Amino acid sequence: MTGKRARTALLVALPAVVLATLCLLSLALGAADVPPDQVIRALFGDAPSRFVDNVVWTVRVPRTALALAAGAALGLAGALMQALTRNPLADPGVLGVSAGASFAIVLAVGVLGINSLYGYVWFAFAGALIATVAVYLLGGLGRSGMTPVKLALAGIAVTSMLWSFTQAIVLTDVDALNKFRFWSAGSLADADNGMVWRVLPFLVIGAVLALACAPALNSLALGDDVAASLGRRLGLVRLAGVSAVTLLTGASVAVIGPVVFIGLVVPHVARVLAQSAGIGPDQRWLLPLSAVLAPSLLLTADILGRLVARPTEIQAGVLVAFIGGPFFIAMVRRRNPAEV
Amino acid sequence: MPNPRSALKFRPGNGGSPDSARLRTYRLALPPVSGVFRPRLVALCAVLTAATFLLFCWGLTTGDYPIGFTEVVRALVGSGDPGTVLVVRELRLPRALVGLLAGIAFGVSGALFQTMTRNPLASPDMIGLTQGAGTAVVAGIVLGWDGGLGTQALGLLGALASALTVYLLSWRRGTTGYRIILVGIGVAWICTSATDYLVAKGGRFQAQAALGWLVGNLNGRTWDQVGPLAVALAVLLPTALLLGRLLRTLQLGDDVAIGLGTRVQPVRLAILLSGVGLIAFATASAGPVAFVALAAPQIAQRLARTAWPPTVASGLTGALVVLGGDLIARTLVPGTELPVGIVTGVLGAPVLLWLLARANRAGSGG
Fold first, then answer.
1. Could you tell me if B290 and B215 are in contact, meaning their C-beta atoms sit under 8 angstroms apart?
2. What is the ipTM of this complex?
3. Which of A329, B132, B280, B309 is the most exposed place for a label (fewest CB within 10 A)?
4. Domain A2-94+173-339 annotated CATH 3.40.50.980
């Protein structure tokens, strides 16, 4: 019993320590390195120089905060989506959310000529929302109502349709293409405080909704019939879940681009960790764990992206795939397929 | 005898497998020519063949310079005025043939993958093959790495390299369909990110050229693309069709299939090889045309009301989608030639959704 307790404590402490260390590194490293002690002094308003204060507060803090917020959102959204669809291949990218945001941004830039980031952030959000609602409604068509596979197929259909519209605009408009190709690689480089504050309310509401769904998701894992007989209102759970996914993904995709790998890979890692701590597939653990692990991955990618190609940088979204991909493959190889 | 249609239930994802007792009844009930018991499937293939043929001919007559059907036939056999012969034989025929062959290859390969992995999401565009081709081609365009190989060869190499990577990485005392999907997703995302990075790194016109290829199109296809594709299909299609029969047992899960005497690993490798070959050659010739490998088998399955994606009908559906898409792409906006991938992406979606909406509980909806 104590052994299990110790493992549970480790499960909570270890990811938290890792994330805190990464935050510190993210504040310290970059085009100009700042020693960690100076970072900490700057954080407490006692910067050794104006330069350090400036670097830490106007460049690194917003960037790190954005990585934390958007990363946590993507991890939560991925875990939620996999639980909702009972399909371990589901992620917000598959269910049309990222495609909706991408299309709306390209529409805003290419057709309406909106060039400021704040202008098209809202378009991305609206696009994600509309795409998700469309997928949700379309996935429920037909006599048997909504099933996980129908939801996923509806998502793929909507994704491919929106992606085609996006390509049609991008291929005929070089300006839109130029915006789109940097945004779609997934970068945190343009972060500032305004961006974080604007998306934070949506992320908080989304996170609360997601965590509120967790107990119901545990029953849902047993199948629709069992969940219904346990007194869960399936329609309500799905509505809350999909709303949370939309809020979380829409807002994060709008600010950092469609970095969808996180939503896919992090819940798998969370399940493996939870299992080795003897907890098992309990969503009340898996959702918060995903919310901590995901920003760790995003921060690692962002930090490496700054270091690898100094003085320029490689987009975090690119490195997320290069770090997460091999890790994911190694994990798939190590585990029994039934467990992954 | 149970109704063969309901004897096998196609359950994508990690759904359960039907019991083997009912399977045996099903297998014994069918003589080698399954058409005897599946008039709907045979009729569907006939209709699809006719429709594909009509679209193919229609495509040859349509364009900036409309040519009557009899003129087209005369141009094909070599008589008629030289201008018409040039347009038909050198411009439209290779384009239509690439569309036809690539469409068949996309459809058949998608059907193989989806049946083998028992997951409709496991189309080649999900497990890294088209993404591998994309990275190789975009690297060629942006970094100038093609070394005189040309887009088609780079696409082929990229697809084969990523397929090999996926297979080797998913091998651990054998492979399972499920592990192939998951490893494939990992490889797919790495390739996509590399492509995104290359597109962001390149100049704006290189980026435009790269995206143009990534959409998938048939513009400007010549006999150079038709030749390799036709040879590849001549070898791979018969193999794929033979293997399609063995897939039925794999669908029941490895344990059941082994129990029924199927040698699971060799069969899976053979299916992978032929599926990969088909998709690699098709992608190299036409680019990663959106949605066809994923949607065509699903559409064919619902039209045929079978419990799995029917191989031949999937191929024909794929051809129909690509040829029809290209025809629309060429005629939608006069004077411009949209890439066919945009049209298949836009049009494939509502068709799939309509079929989803019609799906009933008898296993065809999933």
1. yes
2. 0.72
3. A329
4. no
